[in-house]
Design brief:
The complex is a heterodimer.
Chain A lengths: L4 E10 L2 E11 L4 E5 L6 H8 L6 E6 L2 E2 L5 H7 E4 L11 H6 L14 H13 L15 H14 L4 E5 L7 H16 L3 E5 L3 H7 L2 E6 L2 E6 L1 H4 L2 H8 L1 E8 L2 E9 L6
Parallel strand pairs in A: 3-8, 3-9, 6-7, 7-8
Antiparallel strand pairs in A: 1-2, 1-4, 4-5, 9-10, 11-12
Helix pairs in contact in A: 4-5
Chain B lengths: L1 H26 L7 H9 L5 H35 L11 H14 L2 H4 L3 H21 L5 H25 L5 H10 L7 H19 L2 H7 L3 H6 L4 H23 L5 H9 L7 H26 L7 H24 L1
The chains are: A alpha/beta, B mainly alpha.
C-alpha cells in the first residue's frame, strides 16, 4: 500500500542554519506515530515541511503526490495540520472555529451541507468542546483553546493528521482522551503524526515512535525499542523509571543524568 | 441559524441606511431645492438649472461619497483580516498618503493633463509602493507594533513629499491644495472624476471581495490557513493590489480620508460574530454610510467655509484610535 507520507533526504535551513540534515520518514495508514526529541531537535520543522509550508530540499510525497507540486486545496484534502501556536485572531464562537475545518471541502460559495455539519459535530464531541460551542473562542483557557483547535483539525477529516504538541496545556483526562482519539483515527485506517514531549503518553499510546535529535532520526520503532535508558541519557540527558502496566510500557523521567556519564 | 439571520438583517439595515444617506446627499446643499424637485430633475433630460446642479455637482459628490466610503470600509476590513491586526487601516498605514503623493505628482508634472489615466495609475503605484514597504519593514508575520511604526514613517514621508511637490509647483493655491490631499474632500468633484476612479475602484472591490474565505482561515494564522488550502501568494496578491487599486483610485479623486477604515470594521466586527468574511460587505456598506454622513454634515455645519471631510472623520476617528491603542496595550500586557 502507498504510504500516506513519505519523506526522504529532507533538508531544511532556517535563518541560515541547517535544521534538518537528510531526514527520512514514512507513515502508513493505520499508524499513530509519536515524534519525540529534545527542544530544537527539528520536530516542528519536520511537520511544517511535510506540508510544504517551508522551503526544503529532498522529497516529500503526500499520498504519493509531490507536496511541492500540489495545489494548496489538494494538499488540504490529504493532510490536516495542528500548529503549535494556538492562534485565534478574532473573537469568533467555538463552533465557527471548528467549522473552518470544512472550508477545504467546500466549493465556491457553497454553504455547509448536512455532511459538513455532522463532521463538525463529531469533531466537537471527540474533543469535548460541544458544551461551550457558543462561547467566544478567544475567551477560553489555554487548554480549552487547544481542544477547539484540535477539533478544527479533526473536522478537516483528512487521511493524515500532523499535530504539533497537541497535548500541551491539556489536563490528564483530556490528554488521554486525545491519545484515544488519535488511536481510533489510526484504527479506522488513517495516519496520525504527533510531536510529543510527554514520554509516558508517547510510550503508552503510539504505535511507533520516531526519535529526532539535532535534525536526524536517531531511532524509530515500537516504543519499548526506542525508549531505552541509554537513549534517554544520550539524547535527553535524563534518567527514567521503566515499568509495565496493563500491557503497555510506563516511563517516568526521574532526574537529570548525573556527571558520571561525562 | 440565528447568526445568519442576524447577519442578513444587519446587511439589510446598512443597505437601507446607505440608500437614505445617498438621497440625503443628493438633496442637501447651498442651493435650496425641494426634495421632489431635485430627484425629478435628476431624471429629466432638459438642461434646467436644477438639473445641472443635480447632475454636475450633487450626483458626482454623492456617488464619490458612496464609492470612496465603501472602498475605505472594505479595504480596512481586508487589511485587518489579512494582517490579523485591528489597527490596520489604509490611512494609518500610509497607503492613502502614498496614493495622494502619486496623484499630486501626476497632476503637477503635467502627466495627468497629457494623459488622463496617469492620475489613478500613479496614485495606485503610490499605494502599491506603500504596501510593499510596509510588508518589507514589518515582516511577513505582520507584527502589529512594527506595522504601525512603519505606517507612521511612510505617512510622514509621503506627507512631506506631497507638501514639497506642491510648494515647488508654480501654484498660488499650494497651501489649499496640500489641505485637500491631506484631509480629503468631496467638494467640487465632477462626473469626470467618477468615471476616472470607478473602473479601478470596481476592480479593487472585486479582488478584495474574493478574499472572504481566505480571511476566515487566516484567523488561525498564516501556516494553519495554508494547511487548510489557502494559497497565501494569491491572498497576498489580491490584498495588496485590491487595496492599492481601490484606495489608490479613491484617493486620486478625493484626497486621503482617514480613520474610516479603522473605525467602521471595528464597530461592525462584533455584530457579524467576528467572522472576517462577513465583515467585508458589512464594512463596505458601513464605510459608505460614514463618508456620506460626514459629507452631509460638512455641508450643514459650515456651508460657506469648505470644511474638509477628513477633519470630521479625524475628530471622531483619532480619539477612537487612542482608545484602540489603549485596549491593545492591555491585551498585550
Amino acid at each position: 500500500m502507498r504510504p500516506l507520507l513519505s519523506i526522504s533526504g529532507l533538508r531544511v535551513r532556517l535563518g541560515g542554519k541547517a535544521v534538518l540534515h537528510g531526514l527520512d520518514l514514512s507513515v502508513e495508514a493505520g499508524e499513530f506515530v509519536g515524534l519525540i526529541g529534545p527542544n530544537g531537535a527539528g520536530k516542528s520543522t519536520l511537520l511544517r515541511s511535510a506540508l510544504g509550508l517551508l522551503p526544503y530540499s529532498g522529497t516529500v510525497l503526500l499520498d504519493g503526490a509531490d507536496v511541492a507540486a500540489l495545489p494548496a486545496r489538494g494538499r488540504a484534502e490529504k493532510a490536516a495540520y495542528l500548529a503549535q501556536e494556538r492562534e485565534i485572531a478574532w473573537a469568533v464562537p467555538v463552533e465557527t472555529v471548528v467549522a473552518l475545518g470544512r472550508a477545504p471541502h467546500r466549493r465556491g460559495f457553497a454553504a455547509p451541507g448536512p455532511r459538513d455539519d455532522a463532521i463538525v459535530e463529531e469533531a466537537m464531541r471527540r474533543m469535548d468542546v460541544a458544551a461551550f460551542r457558543d462561547r467566544i473562542a478567544t475567551d477560553l483557557s489555554g487548554g480549552e483553546k487547544a481542544r477547539v483547535l484540535t477539533a478544527r483539525a479533526l473536522a478537516q477529516d483528512t487521511p493524515l493528521l500532523l499535530a504539533d504538541e497537541p497535548t500541551a496545556g491539556l489536563d490528564p483526562a483530556h490528554q488521554i482522551a486525545l491519545m484515544r482519539v488519535f488511536r481510533e483515527l489510526a484504527a479506522s485506517g488513517r495516519g496520525v503524526v504527533a510531536s510529543l514531549h510527554d514520554l509516558g503518553l508517547a510510550a503508552r499510546w503510539c504505535s511507533r515512535l520516531v526519535l529526532v535529535a539535532k535534525g536526524c532520526v536517531v531511532a524509530e520503532g515500537r516504543p519499548e525499542e526506542v525508549l531505552t535508558p541509554e537513549r534517554l541519557r544520550d539524547v535527553y540527558g535524563v534518567t527514567a523509571f521503566f515499568a509495565d502496566a496493563a500491557g503497555a510500557p510506563v516511563i517516568l523521567p526521574l532526574d537529570i543524568a548525573g556527571g558520571q556519564t561525562d | 441559524m440565528s447568526g445568519t439571520a442576524r447577519y442578513r438583517l444587519l446587511i439589510a439595515a446598512l443597505a437601507l441606511a446607505v440608500l437614505v444617506l445617498f438621497l440625503l446627499s443628493l438633496t442637501v446643499g447651498p442651493a435650496a431645492i425641494a426634495f421632489s424637485d431635485s430627484i425629478a430633475a435628476l431624471f429629466q433630460g432638459e438642461a434646467s438649472e436644477i438639473g445641472l446642479i443635480m447632475r454636475e455637482i450633487r450626483l458626482p459628490r454623492a456617488l464619490l461619497g458612496l464609492m470612496v466610503g465603501a472602498t475605505l470600509g472594505l479595504s480596512g476590513a481586508v487589511l485587518q483580516g489579512y494582517l490579523r491586526n485591528p489597527l490596520a487601516e489604509p490611512g494609518l498605514l500610509g497607503i492613502s498618503a502614498m496614493a495622494s503623493l502619486g496623484a499630486v505628482l501626476a497632476i503637477y508634472t503635467g502627466l495627468a493633463a497629457a494623459f488622463m489615466l496617469a492620475l489613478p495609475v500613479l496614485a495606485l503605484a503610490g499605494a502599491v509602493l506603500a504596501v510593499v514597504i510596509l510588508q518589507a519593514l514589518a515582516g511577513a508575520r505582520g507584527n502589529p507594533l512594527l506595522m504601525i511604526l512603519a505606517g507612521i514613517a511612510v505617512s510622514s514621508f509621503a506627507g512631506a513629499m506631497t507638501s514639497l511637490a506642491l510648494n515647488l509647483s508654480p501654484n498660488p493655491f499650494a497651501a489649499l491644495e496640500i489641505m485637500f490631499w491631506m484631509l480629503g474632500s468631496l467638494t467640487d468633484r465632477s462626473m469626470t472624476h467618477v468615471w476616472l476612479a470607478a473602473p479601478f475602484i470596481l476592480v479593487g472591490w472585486a479582488m478584495l471581495a474574493a478574499l472572504g474565505r481566505a480571511l476566515d482561515a487566516l484567523t488561525l494564522g498564516p501556516e494553519t490557513a495554508a494547511s487548510m488550502g489557502v494559497d497565501m501568494r494569491r491572498v497576498q496578491f489580491l490584498a495588496v493590489f485590491g487595496t492599492a487599486a481601490s484606495v489608490g483610485a479613491a484617493t486620486a479623486v478625493t484626497g486621503a480620508i482617514g480613520f474610516v477604515g479603522l473605525v467602521v470594521p471595528h464597530v461592525l466586527r462584533p455584530l457579524v460574530g467576528g467572522r472576517p468574511s462577513r465583515l467585508l460587505l458589512a464594512s463596505a456598506l458601513g464605510g459608505a454610510c460614514v463618508v456620506l454622513t460626514a459629507d452631509v454634515l460638512v455641508r450643514l455645519i459650515a456651508p460657506s467655509r469648505d470644511l474638509k471631510l477628513g477633519v470630521l472623520t479625524a475628530i471622531v476617528g483619532a480619539p477612537f484610535f487612542l482608545w484602540l491603542v489603549y485596549r491593545t496595550r492591555r491585551s498585550l500586557a
